[in-house]
Every structure is written in structure tokens, then in C-alpha cells.
Specification:
The complex is a heterodimer of chains A (421) and B (527).
Chain A (H helix, E strand, L loop, with lengths): L15 H23 L2 E4 L2 E4 L11 E7 L5 H4 E2 L4 H6 L18 E2 L7 H5 L3 E8 L7 H10 L10 H8 L8 E4 L15 E2 L16 H10 L5 H21 L11 H14 L6 E6 L15 H17 L9 E6 L20 E7 L5 E3 L17 E2 H13 L3 H4 L15
Parallel strand pairs in A: 3-9, 3-10, 6-12, 6-13, 7-8, 7-9
Antiparallel strand pairs in A: 1-2, 4-5, 6-11, 10-11
Helix pairs in contact in A: 9-10
Chain B lengths: L13 H4 L36 H9 L6 H10 L2 H8 L8 H4 L12 H9 L5 H18 L3 H13 L10 H14 L4 H9 L2 H6 L12 H11 L8 H11 L2 E3 L7 E3 L9 E3 L2 E3 L7 H12 L2 H15 L6 H13 L5 H9 L1 H4 L9 H11 L3 E2 L12 H12 L22 H16 L7 E2 L11 E3 H12 L6 H11 L6 E3 L3 H15 L2 H4 L2
Antiparallel strand pairs in B: 1-2, 3-4, 5-6, 7-8
Helix pairs in contact in B: 3-4, 7-9, 7-19, 7-20, 8-9, 9-10, 10-14, 12-13, 15-16, 16-17, 19-20, 19-21, 21-24, 22-23, 23-24
The chains are: A alpha/beta (421), B mainly alpha (527).
């Protein structure tokens, strides 16, 4: 797989004006909405507008799942400097032991993680090495599906986060939120309704102008529609009322890296600070499929990606306000890479990988059992921790969920990466 | 392009009038005959629209980017849906003047790889700008074409053999890659597969151009099996390695001339075996082995099933019956991977006939379908700053905002074909914003002609429910359901039997919201 990020300012370079116009339009709608908010309910042209819905239930825990798409190289993120095979296998892309951050006898963080250092030192970030699917799946698409469905042996497409949200109380679509402008990740697919949005200020019915007529008209034309579109429209109807609280939480995106990931994480934080009962948030980031030209310690593709990841994670952890003690962030990638680098300065699809867990309830530092590396061209990092154990511990300890419902068939064994609420 | 003439400005259009807008009145979209001035009163927006029979409506809607009154007329002229479809399978027999006229809009789409690269390096024009224009050119074609079946099949195959349109290396060959797919889109899959997999754009995109015999890069070798042919679960890791070995040698002179080249010294020599394909592969020129291997894959029953499944998901329903997929796979194999017989079988199946309205329009289909539904004319963008506000420019951002622009999907699996993927709440909200912008004629503002609200009135004075029926026929090519009339009443506050004329407040200022009821309905968002 190749995931391509344009090198230049790219696709949006010439549409700033477009964006400005767009925002202008929605702001106008917003102001009218705010006027309607002042009164409890008013009658406009025959339609009753309930402008101030009951306060949404506040979530007691929030889980943010950040997917690093493309198969991130866990051996470059959390470098096993204590394993000599690592240096033998990677003559051109390894990171020297003297360059690593927060070293222990075996591991150290890639130097580009510097922006996250204060959180690591404070014990707010954990890294679990050698995690992944129990059996290797080197297809990007099949592996993502398997990881996010997390219910081996079934063909029904229901994601584990959808199941998790289904076990908690309440039935607001906002309990599961995908920060995305387009397609939802598999983890959120399923019978429990969820919400999605690329930016917080988009969470309003366009042209509603606060009079309730547009929404009433939409309800009429979509009534009883049981298609996927109809279900999503029902989520929109139930969620837009809370959009106001989210927009009022204000975005702090200038504190984040000016990247897609930075913007998405800023949106995630804004939604969480809106405090409208969001329990699960997904964020996707592509661009980790480095078959060629990964670069070294001082620069290049990997270095840039890690800097973006670390900067976005740090900004996010610092942007949660009063919600900070509820929110745990976890990263996952569909597979790790081969131990031995290829002839193009990159690595091909492998198996075991690292997961980061950060924020509320986390016991910081390095976790997981290190299996040792081989140096044969086909060598993989072996998986010693089923990725579901990491998610499972979060589901049990932070949400009080039952692993048999969220991860059917998993023999749950707590890892001690997070503490109970 | 349609010749347009300026109408009087209504109050609703004052915002737009700050820009010199190409106001085209009643001039309808796309495939309309080269326009001449029409007498007022003879505008298409005023004419009663004759509807196709439901089965024809379904066929044409599924295999076009939206039924306009003109398209319906041509379907009738061809002798009905199936006759029209057969005609469409010979696109060369159909004149397409408005698409031909697009040829001069984007000069860089005709430049060769080395020139495009030189322009990027000298900062004259970035590769991403050329690729944005390529995506625009595709959207414009879809809006204007009289060969929608061909254009849809080009889109389908270019997505199946996806090469992301933005990317530092492959952009140099990306337009030619699209042309290559276009040549085979209604031909044979085995020919198309050979041409696509050995094309420089694909070799660059999935790293085969940098592969070596010592450590073959597995990226293309794997995706060829997983995505382009037999599908996941039908090969093992040994197959992937041998697949990658067979492809070694195919290369491109990257970062220099960008000329395709075959490097014998990089080709892995020695016995190779992938599934049932085995070759001695004793020559350092592995091109013949590659072609045999690709033809083997194209004719494999698992490839047949995978392609049949994808065609059925795109054109029938998200979960097509297995019996249909089996039948299409058989037709594909029986006809040596020829595509037309498969399509003929598909449209005649009962599964297809029972699937009316069951697919979700994806972001590109929504953008194109909305321009067509509203009869918006799009003309060549001017030079300079104003170009960014032109319809031809902004329709790309519209598609991006709703979810994805043509071939902007970042990964080699291509954008999803199932409706469920494009049914997310964020997509719906983005679609509704886009619909309202166009319904109001608010954005874009340059090189675009919106129909005036009063031109939607079928006569000087009309009952509201009759106006709803009239607009439903134009925008949705169907009768207005009682529920749609009710929704229009609710949105606008106008009563069913209320008389509407040009002075009515609905026409004066309520029209954007009125039109958005049609565009935000399940009928418009589905196909």
C-alpha cells in the first residue's frame, strides 16, 4: 500500500477563500440558531422549535482511538536498542542508541518524540511493545478490518467500539464519534448509532436558520427510512442539538501541529470539552506505509511522521481542560514491519507492533514481553501481547464493560497498563 | 459551451451579481445540444417533463450521472432503456461535442512526464495542481458527457486499478494512465490488466520501479493479487514473494527523464510459481513471463468472481445475491474476460431489476448529479484570481468536503463502492451544505450559470403542489410523492394549493431552501 501525502501546500492551497465563504455561511446560520436558543420553545410558522434540549449526559470515561494507517514501523517508534539484531538488520534506517529518548536497558523513544517528553516523564504515556493480531495478516485492508471488527470467526461487520458503546447506558449517537469527513472506520460500524464530523462547526443542519422548518421538512422526507442513509440522518437529527455545546467549547487548533492529524486531534479535544456524553472518539491518520525511503534519526518520512504524532498527542493531552481525568488515548496500526530493511531504505509488511496508551489512568513506561529479534530477511517481530488485551483492559477498567461482549472469545488477562477509574 | 444570455436580476441574486456571473437562463446542462438562443417560454425549465417508465428510469439512473430531461429524451429516441444501453456500449458511435470542447481547458493534461517534472522543479506548476485539474476534467466530463455508461466504466476500472492521483512520482504519468484504462474500459480485462500493471504510473505508485532481484519490493506484487485479481485469502506469502520477483525489471528513470525502462540486471532469474502459474523464468528479460502471468491471473476463476462481485456491488446492491455473482463470473470467463457481455448479463438480471434506488450516491456522484439536477451550466474558468471561484475549480473541493475527490482516495484499494461507506452522518451534513450553496446560487460565483427561481415555474402562475411535481420531474425524474409535497410545505410554509407566481415570496427569497428539499431527499442521495 502506498498512502500519498502531497508534498506541497496541496489540495487546499487555493481554496482558502472557499473555506472562508463556507464558514461565513454557517456562522450566519449559527447566529440565528443562538437567537432561538434564548427561549425554551417558540412557535415559528406552525412548527414547534425546542431550542434548548435537556443537558446531555456527561460521560464518565472517554476513549480516543488513533489509528495509524499503513502499518507503522513500531521498531522505529520504540527502538529496541538493547537487541543487537536491530542494528544488524537495519544498516541505513536504524536510530543510534545515543539519540534515543527516555531509554531503559532495552527500549528508547525515537528522538522525534521530543514534543511528548514532558508527558512521558510525568508517567502519562505507556508503550506496549510486540502487540498485534494473534496470527499475522499482511494485507492492510484485511488486517484493519480484522483489528477493528475484533470478533474472529464472524462475518457480521460490527466494530468493537460500536459494541463498547452499545454496552454503556444512554442511546445518544454522540456516544460514539468518528472525527472524519467521509468514511467511518470499521470499529464504529454496527447497530448502535454513532455520529461523525470532520470539524465541530459542521455539526448543524445547513440552512436551518433556527426556525426548525428545515429540520421538520427533513424529518418528513426521511421518516421511516431504514437504509444506512436513513439511520445516519436520524443520528444527525439527534446530534445537531448538541452541536452548539461543542462549538461553544472553542477550538484550540493553533496549539497543534498544522497538519491533518493536528487538526483532527484539535477537533477531538473540542468535542470532548463540549461534554455532551461522547465516550468513544476515533481518529484516523494515513501515511505510515514506508516501503521506500523511511529516512533516519535526523530527518525524512519517519522523522516527520513521529514529530507530527508526538506534537499532536502532546497538544491533545494539554487541551482537555476539566475532562483530562476521563480521557485515555490509545494508538494502533494494522501491523508492524519486517525487522530487516529492504533495498529501498524502507521495510515491507510484518507483524508485531507497538501501541501507545496515554492520559487518564495510564501507568507510564514500557510494557509488554520482548520476544527478541531475528535477522533473517523474513523475520518479523513476534506478537507476545494480543492487541485485544490492551483494548480489553481499557474497556474493563475505564468503562466497566464485559470483555465477553466487546471481545467475544478473548481470554482476558489484565496487563496493568491502565488503572481502574 | 452553451451560449448564455443575461436575464434581469432578481433580488435573490444580488449577492451573486457582485461577480460578473455568466447567467444562463433555462439553458440546461451538459449533454444539451449546442445551444442557440431560445425564445422565452420555450425554456426547458418550463416544459412539462415526460418521465421514463420505472424500469428504464432505474437502468438509466444506475448507469448515468443523473437523468436530465434531455437524457430521457435520448433514451426514448434510442427505443427505450435496453436499446439505449446497447448504444452506449459503443461509445465511439455517439458524438460528444461538449466533452470534446473540454480538451483545451487544461493544457498540462497534454504535457509529457519530463515536461511536467521540469515545471514542478522550476516551480512553474506543481504536480498537485496538474492532478487537481485532472480530477476537475473528470468531473466535468461526467457532467457533460453523452456517453455516461462509458464514463462510469472508466471510473469503475480506474478505481479498481487505483493509482492515487496525487503523489510526487506517479503524477508525471497519471494522465496517461487514465487514458490507458479508458482504452480498455469496455474491452477485455486481461488486456487492461497487462497495460495497467506494467504502466509507469502503477510501477512508481506501488514501488515496483525501485524493486531489485535481491530483495524484491512486495508492494505491487501483493496488491496485484489482493486488490487487482484473485483477492485476499486466495494466495499465500510465497505467492506474494514470487509475484514480486516476476515483476522485477520493470522500471522508470525516476527523478530524471521519467522514461519507462526495463532493467534486465534487476530482473530475478529462476523458477517462479504463483498459485497454478509456474515458469522457468530463465531469461533476464522477464517481460514475456510477466505478460503470461498477468493473463493467467486475469483468467483465474477467483479473479472472475472478484470482478463480478465488485461490478455487482457498484451497479446492483451492497450485498448482491451469490447466484448473480456466479453467473457474471461465468459470463466473464466464457467471454475471455470481455467486459460488455458481463454488463449485458448484469442489466438483464432480476437482481438488478429489483434494486432500484438501493445504492447511495458517492461524493463525486452527488456533486455531478446535483449540477445536472439543477441544470447549472459550467463554462471555462477565466485566467487569474477569479479562476479559484469558478464552478470548474470549486466542484473539486465540494467532492473533497463531502468525502473524496476523483482518485484522491489515499490507499490502493480505491474508494469504497458500497453505499454504507458513504452514508456517514458527516457526509450527509457536508452534502446538505453543498446542495444549499448550489440551490441558492451562492457558491461558486464565476463561470457558472444558475437557473433563476422564476424559470422553474412551469407557467406564469402555478399551484404549489403542481410546482413540486414539476421540480420533482426535473431534479429527480419522478413524480412527487405525497410525502415530498408535505416536506416542501413544511420547509417553506407554503400551502399545497397556494398559487405561486414570480412575485410570490417563495420565488423572491424562499427558493434555495425549497430546492434543497429535493436535493436532501433519499431520492437524490441514492441512485
Amino acid at each position: 500500500m502506498t498512502s500519498t501525502t502531497p508534498t506541497t501546500g496541496s489540495t487546499h492551497a487555493c481554496c482558502d477563500e472557499y473555506a472562508a465563504t463556507r464558514t461565513g455561511v454557517s456562522r450566519r446560520g449559527l447566529m440565528k440558531g443562538a437567537v432561538a436558543l434564548a427561549g425554551a420553545s417558540t412557535v415559528v410558522g406552525g412548527a414547534v422549535v425546542t431550542a434548548s434540549p435537556a443537558q446531555a449526559r456527561s460521560a464518565s470515561s472517554v476513549l480516543v482511538v488513533l489509528s495509524l494507517r499503513g502499518g507503522a514501523d513500531g521498531l522505529s517508534l520504540v527502538v529496541p536498542h538493547g537487541d543487537r539484531a536491530y542494528y544488524q538488520a537495519r544498516p541505513s534506517i536504524s536510530v543510534g542508541s545515543d539519540r534515543l529518548l527516555h531509554k531503559d536497558g532495552m527500549f528508547g523513544l525515537h528522538p522525534a518524540f521530543a514534543p511528548l517528553s514532558s508527558y512521558w516523564q510525568a508517567g502519562k504515556v505507556a508503550a506496549v511493545q510486540a502487540t498485534g493480531l494473534p496470527v499475522a495478516n499482511r494485507s492492510h485492508f484485511a488486517a484493519m478490518e480484522e483489528i477493528e471488527d475484533a470478533d474472529p470467526g464472524t462475518t457480521s461487520r460490527v466494530g468493537w467500539l460500536n459494541r463498547l458503546v452499545g454496552t454503556t447506558s444512554g442511546n445518544s449517537p454522540l456516544q460514539g464519534f468518528g472525527v472524519t469527513g467521509g468514511v467511518l472506520p470499521t470499529s464504529l460500524y454496527g447497530p448502535t448509532r454513532v455520529m461523525s464530523g470532520g470539524a465541530a462547526d459542521a455539526l448543524a443542519i445547513p440552512g436551518a436558520d433556527g426556525d426548525g422548518l428545515k429540520k421538520a421538512s427533513l424529518r418528513t422526507v426521511w421518516k421511516g427510512n431504514k437504509t444506512p442513509l436513513g439511520r445516519s440522518m436520524a443520528s444527525v437529527f439527534d446530534a445537531v442539538g448538541e452541536g452548539r455545546a461543542i462549538r461553544r467549547a472553542a477550538s484550540n487548533k493553533s496549539d497543534y501541529p498544522d497538519t491533518d492529524l493536528g487538526r483532527a486531534m484539535a477537533t477531538a479535544a473540542q468535542i470532548i470539552r463540549g461534554n455532551v456524553g461522547v465516550e468513544v472518539v476515533t481518529v484516523d491518520q494515513g501515511d505510515w506505509d514506508m516501503h521506500v525511503g523511511a529516512g533516519g534519526a535526523d530527518g525524512g518520512w519517519m522523522n516527520n511522521n513521529i514529530r507530527d504524532l508526538a506534537g499532536s498527542m502532546a497538544a491533545f493531552l494539554g487541551d482537555l481542560g476539566s475532562q483530562a481525568d476521563k480521557v485515555t488515548l490509545v494508538t494502533i496500526s494494522e501491523f508492524g514491519r519486517r525487522v530487516v530493511e529492504n533495498d529501498s531504505g524502507g521495510t515491507d509488511h510484518g507483524h508485531g507492533n507497538v501501541m501507545f496508551v496515554a492520559g487518564a489512568g495510564v501507568k507510564g513506561g514500557y510494557h509488554g514481553r520482548w520476544p527478541g529479534l531475528g535477522t533473517g530477511y523474513e523475520s518479523d517481530l513476534k506478537v507476545t501481547t494480543d492487541y485485544r488485551q490492551v483494548f480489553g483492559e481499557l474497556a474493563v477498567k475505564r468503562f466497566g464493560a464485559s470483555t465477553s461482549k466487546v471481545f467475544p472469545g478473548l481470554k482476558y488477562r489484565p496487563l496493568g497498563v491502565v488503572q481502574a477509574r | 459551451m452553451p451560449v448564455s444570455f443575461t436575464s434581469t436580476t432578481s433580488t435573490a441574486r444580488q449577492l451573486v451579481q457582485q461577480e460578473p456571473v455568466n447567467q444562463s437562463v433555462g439553458q440546461s446542462i451538459g449533454e444539451a445540444a449546442p445551444a442557440t438562443r431560445r425564445r422565452p417560454g420555450k425554456r426547458p425549465g418550463k416544459k412539462r417533463v415526460r418521465l421514463l417508465a420505472p424500469a428504464d428510469r432505474h437502468l438509466v439512473r444506475r448507469f448515468s450521472y443523473g437523468i436530465t430531461p434531455e437524457l430521457a429524451k435520448r433514451v426514448r429516441k434510442a427505443g427505450g432503456g435496453l436499446a439505449w444501453f446497447e448504444q452506449q456500449l459503443s461509445p465511439g458511435s455517439i458524438a460528444d461535442p461538449q466533452v470534446d470542447a473540454l480538451a483545451g481547458w487544461y493544457p498540462s493534461l497534454r504535457r509529457g512526464p519530463s515536461e511536467l517534472w521540469r515545471r514542478q522543479v522550476k516551480e512553474i506548476e506543481g504536480g498537485w495542481e496538474v492532478m487537481d485539474d485532472y480530477a476537475r476534467w473528470l468531473l466535468l466530463r461526467r457532467i457533460k458527457t453523452r456517453r455516461p455508461v462509458f464514463e462510469m466504466m472508466v471510473e469503475f476500472w480506474e478505481n479498481h486499478l487505483h493509482v492515487t492521483a496525487v503523489g510526487d512520482g506517479q503524477f508525471t504519468h497519471r494522465v496517461d494512465y487514465g487514458k490507458t484504462i479508458r482504452q480498455h474500459a469496455l474491452g477485455r480485462f486481461d488486456d487492461m490488466l497487462v497495460a495497467a500493471i506494467t504502466h509507469p504510473a502503477m510501477l512508481i505508485y506501488l514501488n515496483a520501479a525501485e524493486s531489485t532481484k535481491e530483495h524484491p519490493n512486495e508492494n505491487l506484487g501483493r496488491e496485484l493479487l489482493e486488490l487487482h485479481t484473485v483477492g485476499v485469502g486466495n494466495y499465500d506469502e510465497r505467492d506474494v514473494k514470487n509475484s514480486a520477483r516476476i515483476l522485477t525489471g520493470w522500471s522508470v528513470d525516476m527523478w530524471e527523464s521519467w522514461r519507462p525502462q526495463y532493467n534486465r540486471e534487476d530482473h530475478y532469474v529462476g523458477r517462479v510459481k504463483v498459485k497454478g502459474f509456474a515458469a522457468k523464468n530463465g531469461n533476464d528479460d522477464g517481460r514475456a513471463v510477466t505478460r503470461k502471468y498477468l493473463r493467467y491471473l486475469a483468467h483465474h476463476p477467483q479473479t472472475a468472481r472478484r470482478i463480478a462481485q465488485k461490478l455487482a456491488v457498484k451497479f446492483v446492491s451492497d450485498r448482491p445475491p451469490a447466484s448473480l455473482v456466479d453467473r457474471l463470473a461465468r459470463v466473464y470467463l466464457d467471454n475471455d474476460t470481455a467486459i460488455k457481455p458481463v454488463l449485458r448479463a448484469l442489466v438483464r438480471s432480476s437482481a438488478f431489476q429489483n434494486a432500484a434506488g438501493k445504492k447511495v450516491r458517492d461524493p463525486g456522484e452527488d456533486v455531478v448529479g446535483t449540477y445536472r439536477a439543477l441544470g447549472i451550466s459550467v463554462s471555462q474558468p477565466p485566467k487569474g484570481d477569479r479562476a479559484g471561484r469558478s464552478a470548474a475549480a470549486t466542484m473539486l473541493y465540494s467532492a473533497q468536503t463531502i468525502g473524496v475527490s476523483p482518485f484522491g482516495w489515499p490507499t490502493p484499494d480505491g474508494q469504497p463502492l458500497d453505499g454504507a461507506a458513504w452514508a456517514s452522518p458527516s457526509r450527509l451534513l457536508a452534502s446538505m451544505r453543498f446542495h444549499l450553496d448550489l440551490a441558492g446560487g451562492w457558491w461558486p460565483t464565476v463561470a457558472v450559470g444558475y437557473r433563476e427561481p422564476k424559470d422553474w415555474l412551469p407557467r406564469r402562475q402555478v399551484r404549489f403542489e403542481d410546482l413540486v411535481e414539476h421540480v420533482a420531474r426535473i431534479t429527480l425524474h419522478r413524480h412527487a410523492s405525497d410525502r415530498l409535497v408535505e416536506a416542501c410545505c413544511r420547509a417553506t410554509g407554503v400551502k399545497r394549493r397556494e398559487l405561486v407566481d414570480a412575485e410570490h415570496e417563495l420565488v423572491q427569497w424562499g427558493f434555495p431552501r425549497f430546492l434543497s428539499v429535493f436535493l436532501d431527499s433519499p431520492d437524490h442521495l441514492s441512485r
